[in-house]
Amino acid sequence: MTVNVIPKRLQRVWDKWNIRGSVLASLCLQILLIFLAPSRKRARGYIIIPIVWTSYLLADFVAAYAIGLISNNQGDKCDKGNVNDALSAFWASFLLLHLGGPDSITAFSLEDNELWIRHLFGLIAELIMVVYVFTQAIPFSFWLQTLLVLLAGLIKYAERTRALYLACLGNFKDSLKPKPDAGPNYAQLMGEYSSMLEAELPVKFITVNESERQANKEHERQANSEVKLNDIEIVREGFRFYQIFRGLIVDHMFSFQERDESRRFFLGLKKAQDAFRVMEVELNFMYDALFTKMATVYKSYLGYIFRFICTALIVATYILFQSHHKPHIHPFDIAITYSLLIGAIILDIVALIKLVLSDWTLALLQLQKSLPLLKVKEVLWPVYTIGKYISFRRRWSESMGQHNLISFCLVSLERRLKLLDEVVDYVGLKEIFEFMTHRDFISVGNDLKEFIFNELKAKADEAKDAISAREIHSSRGHMAVLRYTSRESIVATVGENVEFNESVLKWHIATDLLYFESKEHNDKKKLCKQLSDYMLYLLFMQPSLMSAVSGIFQIRFQDTCEEAKEFVRRLKMTPDRSQPSDQTMEKRARAQLLELATPVKPVEIKGDRSKSVLFDACMLAKDLKSVDDDKMWKMMSEVLVELLSYGASHCRGNAHAQQLTKGGELVTFVWLLMAHFGLGDQFRIQAGHARAKLITETEREMSEENTEKESAV
């Protein structure tokens, strides 16, 4: 005797609504994804991203589950409130369409792209399942409508699988390989050389170095007036540099021509806003190529044709279904079918509008020179401009995280719920809890963009060759310090013998102490505070991004925090007439740290067991005070930019790419800007491509005369 755990009434409700509910849930998830997925590249909040993540995971599961339910119930003649077999076969084709997913998201993270083979097998399996459902329902009245939607679903699912395949980092890197180059025809050249020698002609080999010809164009930047870019030109230049520098994601090596081309353009820009806008477009193209279907559609006009075919098939299906007689079908099931049809049409129209107004379409039209496309371009550009104002203006979050060590320690010290901390730590959610409770974001102002751009531009001007560019790329603040002081105690904090995370912690604490101690207004003072807190935010809150340079940061941070807490505990025990609030305690703690006598280095007292740098930072702050106030803040700002640029350029490219799905990071823009200025070690060729050329003595003399004339001009 079997015991039914589930009540019969609940079982009847499930039998009646399981397919209907799953189909409607699948449609709702598609609606959520197409509208919310693009928001994650400009959202910092903890509402949008979890919703997108949940919808992304559930979408495939619900659609596949619904197809399984339909297949299981096909041919079941028991009256359980089941859906009509013909209609359920029709719905199954819609579920295949849903499995194709919206254009706005194919992968939630980079790791999802590596599973393209699984999606390919999923396509085959689900297609077989839908075809099985279709054959089981034959003959039925909606066979033509089912075939039309089935074809549209097959196209969409194939597009998604191809998008995942192209975005897989291995395939992405392979797509960047240059065409095979055998070089000059050696055999032919030797034959000509031998023939000329036999004819007793004065002949000679000369080497034509392409880098010299490129270098001669460097003066064009000096002659350029201020480069002004409109919205169309921003997209054009962003796409141009995306095609060149997308290889940064997979650590691709670039040629000297690509380096010079990028340097000439960005050194010619006078406004930091223009540079950042170009990079915004560039990073948006990277986001689309890695996490959406846009790159697949853009690859050829075939993608656009398939997109219009899908929409036409669904519209034709709607017309056929509306005109078809529908006997013996429950009105509610008819309403669900209309919801699927209208929902599919609306989603496709939205996708088409986004495609037409996208940067990809604009870039494609700009590349074409044919008269028909030029006419299309004239029509679409005004539409694009209108659409730009209707859609979101921001391409990323335009915000930066802030984290302050002293404030964090004081808050942790005052927290009363110690049990909560222990529970959170036990279940492994300590980092997430701290991230949510201590996070703070500020907008990235134009003054900060201008300062970073000008600093890196000045460094790029100094980097005339690969050696100097590599030195600047590897500098962690010592070049900036040496421009203002040669004091050993300051220079040592950013030396090669000091770990990157240690330098950041010392300069963060020193900046914080001096910021609250100084009463004078200084333009660089605020920038120093923002950069200092941002650097600590990156190391503390973004460990996966900064893993290549973080070292033992977590150990050093916790030891420094513990020493700071111990200092505050002793400070609280000091008699005081007033009962200070948290804010006054912060001020008092900072003042006492700055006034504390530090005649002996902490390592000589404590040894190397503790990795705390609290009092080392206090000593650094006192040393910095010996510099003139204006020079001090200027030096500190330049040091912090060097630390930021070092961290940015030494992080892995795929780690930067992953941040594009989380609102973006300022450090990613710094990483890209350094590459555009040619500051890095990712440029393969230094001397350029040398090509041998066979000339006679007369030709050589004429060539030298022409060179002299060009030099004189």
From TrEMBL:
Transmembrane segments: 17-36, 48-70, 115-134, 140-158, 301-321, 336-357, 534-553
PANTHER family: OS01G0798800 PROTEIN-RELATED
Domain of life: Eukaryota
InterPro entries recorded: DUF4220, DUF594
Domain DUF4220: 53-408
Organism: Olea europaea subsp. europaea
Presence of keyword Transmembrane helix: yes
Protein's name in the database: DUF4220 domain-containing protein
Keywords per UniProt: Membrane, Transmembrane, Transmembrane helix
Claim: Transmembrane helix is one of the keywords in the record: yes
